[in-house]
């Protein structure tokens, strides 16, 4: 199968992990921002995580350089537009982009301005390319619980107008869900959908907590339900879709090698999975790459492709009109 030409859906893609390296240099020059180098190869080395990353925390260090640049409205709009453009060029027809607004207020932007700027870039790309985008607002688990209310309140007026869901991300510790029960419940009451990073770093029980305590409809990664029977059974019973990211999970040591990656096992056992990049630049990949890796290593078929595609449509936080359009791409 030629996956570059086939329509694809991406439900788990971080904005600040998918910035073009040349854009970092361009914006630094335009905005007089001091960055460690203006050499494109050196910038790439700072932005792309090594294949032999030791941990998730080492992987996350690659977000520091984009964070220096993504502090004004023009830069945020451009970077969002370019991510949509890159996705469209490999025939991604729908994408949910996620980012943590509070990482982009260091130079005076309000949380609302940050969200509006990213939405502007998404909508500009939609007017040019055959792609639809929505935005997931991430709250950082490394920040205070109180800070998550800032994100939830700032984003609520954009619900059903580009913003669709709330997320918790960053370093994963045991039992993080308990701390965030109240803000996530508030977000749900406003109409946010819920997807939670969990089970990425060896703690399968966090997936169980994310579903039972936070009412997560999707799980970011979820690899370690393989080692937690009650989480595995709950994901399967509740039809919770896993947003799986093979190359990223290899780099962060969620798995030792691709042969041990559980996506195919989950899929064959009736668990709903979607295939995603996580971070296009940090992992130096695109979604076509991820499809080729999985389908070549596990001898999956066109039927498997269609099942994963349609499961991704149903799991998306898109409206019904958009879902109908997405279904028709493969009919």
UniProtKB/TrEMBL annotation:
Residues involved in Zn(2+) binding: 12, 14, 197, 278
Function: Catalyzes the hydrolytic deamination of adenosine and 2-deoxyadenosine.
Residues reported in the UniProt entry to bind substrate: 14, 16
Keyword field contains Cell wall biogenesis/degradation: no
UniProt-listed Enzyme Commission number(s): 3.5.4.4
Organism: Paraclostridium benzoelyticum
Active site: 200
Protein family membership: Belongs to the metallo-dependent hydrolases superfamily. Adenosine and AMP deaminases family. Adenosine deaminase subfamily.
Keywords of the record: Hydrolase, Metal-binding, Nucleotide metabolism, Zinc
Co-factor binding details: Binds 1 zinc ion per subunit.
GO-annotated biological processes: adenosine catabolic process; hypoxanthine salvage; inosine biosynthetic process; nucleotide metabolic process; purine ribonucleoside monophosphate biosynthetic process
Domain annotation Adenosine deaminase: ranges: 7-330
UniProt-recorded name of the protein: Adenosine deaminase
Required co-factors: Zn(2+)
